[in-house]
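Q: What residues go here?
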């Protein structure tokens, strides 16, 4: 927040000077957005099209035209963004720009609620709770529920806060949130409802608000007619950055403030709406013209980041979107090469190609921090991390933990480490603590005996354990013997998981379904090894001077190659970008089943591809090892298949202009096969469920398929990709 909300509001005529702003840096659409000051305006700003510059110039232009700085409201998603914009506006015009009310939704809400919160029972001195404060209160309330404090399976305070927050940000009921994302906690809905009510009561009684309350309570006071009018009169010009990332509550706040005058300009890109898991609603930007029928639509399509071949391909990706604001990105940057598509044999070949190409780029003089590898999910980079470590290439990972940093991954690897090295005290200590009634002291006593033994597993089987934990110790001993007797790493992993599964669900009872995906990925990695020794050796290696993962500050990654989820890469750019695992079930994710989910996956790839300035590499494996079997065929991502011929070139064979590493005819053939009215009896292959048989047509473009490993599933052919492998 930059200044007092309710200071002097008039500007004298002597303050209005001759024009100072030099508009030569703006292109025509940007100039139109800057100078269209009255009425609703929707600016669709394509990737790299200078949206920040547009907002900066518009702030300065409004003030130059005589608008009081205090009457302008600039809403952003980070404090840094608003500060930078107002600073740049001041350089364009003068220091009066600093008097604009600029900040995040939460910061503006805090200021307004300190003035008007009394309408809701709050004093101006209310305290804002951070995440740890909220979790502490929930923990206190949880312990007050009869018997729940000692119930080890009751959801943790962290998960409870996540659930309550999603209720607010997605405007969903508790039942909907739990049933859709936390189905394993459905038995606790009654208790969670009680905690929700008690939490709200506690906050009001103690003059407290959490971050979600700031938005909800701002919406509530804006809905009070006299308060809403006063605030709307105060802010006669409203501007919003990254509008595609707003949730329903934020969109309603904007509507209420702008209702009397409708002088609201929102800037965003529907093609970069990728945060639905945080509550962002794609409908907000798509329905802006419905909410404001007189809205002017301005498209910013000139890109200042990427070469034209990259933009031509990314245009083709988003052209297939079911719903969009049509735009064609173009650039005046000359030259450039077409994106390269590498068809990897398997995960190992993919990792070797990416690491090898990165090494060559660095040796040729490219700075490490001008290279990024992007992926759909945090665990998709595990194999690559091992390969980079072996090649002594330092990296920073953003958006997800490194392979060996997750507690549940460490648990399973510890079971394998004691087979590889029977004197690995750290691993022994970790797995001994799995046993109920065994604490640190008892574990240390057992460790002393293990150290003196030539055969620790036999020692465990004969160890004089206490009555309460004897069965647990013997179970561990027999499990380790089974693991040791297996002849391949993947069989050893499966034996370890047979033992660990129950422990896993007990230790991580409130979020084990999410963590389970990491273990599935680990199994795929293990399946690529023929020796347990090699696997343990690779997982133990860390890159020299490895940076802290999940670091948002760009400075932390200076001089280092970046590995990042696409979500964590939005807004950033690099000279060379690799996008990996572009196979069905990976990208798009196997979790994406509905039309809306698939469409967001498409937008994710668009965001990933538009991070590249000079070179873009698209990589997919033709085979994926999973579930302990030999490698299974992987289907190329539908988003790559849909790219017209000639926009990419093959990287792993002699590149020929207009030839891709996949067949466009394959796409048409699949569409033809699935256009049949009745597919009953057809053998199909699903990217996640494997092979199955169509049992019947369940409706228009919908089939019921029986999969041998997953049972019967209902599949919509328009949004879930399958292959017909037999009639």
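A:
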């Amino acid at each position: 927040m930059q200044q007092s909300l309710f200071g002097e509001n008039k500007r004298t005529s002597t303050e209005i000077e001759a024009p100072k702003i030099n508009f030569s840096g703006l292109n025509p659409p940007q100039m139109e957005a800057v100078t269209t000051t009255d009425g609703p305006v929707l600016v669709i700003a394509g990737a790299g099209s200078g949206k920040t510059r547009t907002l900066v110039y518009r702030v300065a232009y409004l003030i130059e035209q005589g608008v009081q700085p205090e009457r302008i409201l600039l809403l952003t998603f980070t404090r840094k963004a608003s500060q930078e914009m107002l600073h740049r506006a001041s350089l364009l015009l003068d220091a009066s720009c600093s008097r604009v009310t600029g900040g995040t939704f939460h910061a503006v809400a805090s200021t307004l609620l300190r003035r008007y919160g009394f309408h809701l029972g709050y004093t101006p001195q209310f305290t804002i709770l951070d995440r740890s404060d909220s979790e502490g209160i929930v923990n206190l309330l949880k312990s007050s529920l009869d018997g729940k404090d000692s119930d080890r399976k009751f959801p943790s305070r962290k998960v409870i806060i996540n659930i309550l927050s999603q209720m607010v940000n997605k405007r969903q009921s508790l039942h909907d949130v739990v049933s859709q994302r936390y189905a394993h906690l459905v038995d606790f809905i009654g208790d969670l409802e009680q905690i929700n009510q008690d939490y709200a009561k506690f906050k009001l009684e103690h003059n407290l608000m959490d971050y979600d309350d700031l938005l909800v309570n701002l919406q509530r006071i804006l809905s009070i007619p006299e308060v809403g009018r006063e605030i709307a009169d105060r802010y006669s010009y409203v501007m919003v950055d990254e509008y595609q990332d707003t949730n329903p509550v934020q969109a309603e706040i904007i509507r209420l403030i702008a209702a009397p005058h409708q002088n609201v300009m929102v800037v965003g890109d529907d093609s970069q709406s990728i945060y639905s898991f945080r509550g962002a609603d794609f409908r907000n930007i798509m329905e802006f013209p419905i909410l404001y029928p007189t809205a002017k639509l301005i498209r910013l399509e000139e890109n200042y980041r990427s070469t034209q071949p990259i933009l031509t391909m990314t245009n083709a990706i988003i052209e297939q979107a079911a719903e969009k604001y049509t735009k064609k990105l173009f650039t005046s940057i000359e030259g450039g090469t077409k994106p390269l598509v590498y068809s990897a044999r398997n995960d190992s070949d993919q990792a070797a190609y990416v690491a090898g190409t990165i090494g060559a780029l660095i040796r040729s003089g490219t700075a490490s921090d001008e290279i990024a590898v992007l992926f759909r999910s945090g665990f998709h980079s595990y194999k690559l991390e091992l390969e980079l470590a072996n090649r002594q290439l330092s990296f920073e990972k953003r958006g997800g933990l490194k392979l060996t940093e997750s507690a549940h991954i460490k648990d399973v690897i510890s079971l394998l480490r004691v087979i590889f090295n029977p004197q690995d005290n750290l691993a022994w200590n970790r797995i001994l603590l799995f046993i109920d009634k065994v604490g640190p002291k008892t574990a240390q006593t057992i460790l002393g005996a293990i150290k003196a033994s030539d055969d620790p597993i036999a020692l465990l089987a004969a160890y004089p354990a206490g009555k309460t934990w004897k069965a647990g110790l013997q179970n561990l001993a027999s499990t380790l013997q089974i693991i040791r007797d297996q002849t391949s790493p993947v069989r050893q992993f499966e034996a370890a998981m047979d033992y660990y599964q129950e422990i896993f669900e007990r230790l991580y009872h409130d979020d084990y379904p999410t963590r389970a995906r990491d273990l599935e990925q680990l199994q795929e990695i293990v399946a690529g090894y023929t020796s347990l020794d090699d696997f343990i050796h690779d997982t133990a290696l860390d890159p020299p001077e490895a940076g802290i993962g999940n670091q948002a500050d760009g400075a932390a990654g200076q001089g280092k190659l970046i590995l990042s989820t696409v979500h964590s890469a939005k807004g950033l750019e690099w000279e060379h970008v690799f996008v990996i695992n572009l196979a069905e079930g990976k990208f798009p994710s196997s979790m994406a089943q509905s039309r809306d989910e698939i469409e967001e996956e498409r937008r994710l790839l668009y965001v990933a591809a538009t991070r590249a300035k000079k070179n873009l590499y698209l990589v997919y494996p033709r085979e994926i090892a999973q579930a302990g079997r030999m490698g299974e065929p992987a289907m190329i991502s539908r988003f790559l298949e849909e790219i017209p011929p000639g926009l990419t070139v093959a990287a792993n064979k002699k590149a020929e202009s207009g030839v891709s590493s996949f067949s466009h005819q394959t796409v048409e053939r699949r569409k033809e096969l699935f256009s049949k009215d009745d597919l009953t009896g057809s053998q199909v292959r699903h990217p996640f469920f494997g092979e199955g048989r169509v049992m019947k047509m369940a409706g228009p473009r919908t089939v019921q398929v029986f999969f041998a490993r997953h049972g019967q599933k209902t599949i919509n052919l328009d949004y879930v990709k399958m292959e017909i492998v037999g009639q």
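A: Context that may help when evaluating the design: The radius of gyration is 29 Å. The chain has 28 helices and 22 strands.
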